[in-house]
Amino acid sequence: MTRTAEERQRHIVRTARTTGAVDVNTLAAQLGVAKETVRRDLRALEDHGLVRRTHGGAYPVESAGFETTLAFRATSHVPEKRRVAAAAAELVGDAETVFVDEGFTPQLIAEALPRDRPLTVVTASLPVAGALAGAENTSVLLLGGRVRAGTLATVDHWTTKMLAGFVLDLAFIGANGISREHGLTTPDPAVGEVKAQAIRAARRTVFAGVHTKFGAVSFCRFAEIGALEAIVTSTLLPSAEAHRYSLLGPQVIRV
């Protein structure tokens, strides 16, 4: 069956969102077209902000209509996320009150926080609260609100109102995308509000995320790059690109 370009591209986006990534060779075989045709489709989809191209393929960009679940995030780039989380946790310094964002990398940061001194952790994430609830010397304050099923985190006015009542030493923030042009973005306005409020409440803000987040742009902008004290990522982000981010203000740490 011969498909139109629109049908091919719909198939590519659907496959990318289901599996987490697509490969040019596999798509060419599935669709019965030349590899160059697939590459042309991927370029068109990248121009529309639906995928990011990689060497030999592409992966989906999270948007207002598509967001990966926490369960899916726990299966992708895990060794890289663990390295990034461990390095981010080392930036706690003498902070006594810490906000930990929703998401898998922040959850790994929470597990790497120091246990040998008193620490108060504020979070909207049920998994983060659960991971730290039994930790010695750690007090956990879980923000109330509506729980989003995909990420198991609270949102809406209850959450942001509680956050507005705090002055925090440090916020560990995640994002679905980070770019020099558009700052930090996330697909859901309610999530963006919680993240923005956490940054307003914190004296210091650290973004931690894997290399695939960089250059990606989602629906709702909640912070500029200049609001960050530090960015922690892996060496898979090229050093030249890391330097461009550092020129906007934050220290960029690659591990």
From TrEMBL:
Keyword Repressor attached: yes
UniProt keyword terms in alphabetical order: Repressor, Transcription, Transcription regulation
Lineage: superkingdom: Bacteria
Domain HTH deoR-type: 5-60
Record bears the keyword Nuclease: no
PROSITE patterns found in the cross-reference section: HTH_DEOR_2 (PS51000)
MF annotations from Gene Ontology: DNA-binding transcription factor activity
InterPro entries, alphabetized: Carb_Metab_HTH_regulators (IPR050313), DeoR-like_C (IPR014036), DeoR_HTH (IPR001034), NagB/RpiA_transferase-like (IPR037171), WH-like_DNA-bd_sf (IPR036388), WH_DNA-bd_sf (IPR036390)
Role description: Repressor of the lactose catabolism operon. Galactose-6-phosphate is the inducer.
Name this protein carries in UniProt: Lactose phosphotransferase system repressor
Taxonomic lineage: Bacteria, Bacillati, Actinomycetota, Actinomycetes, Kitasatosporales
Gene this chain is encoded by: glpR_2
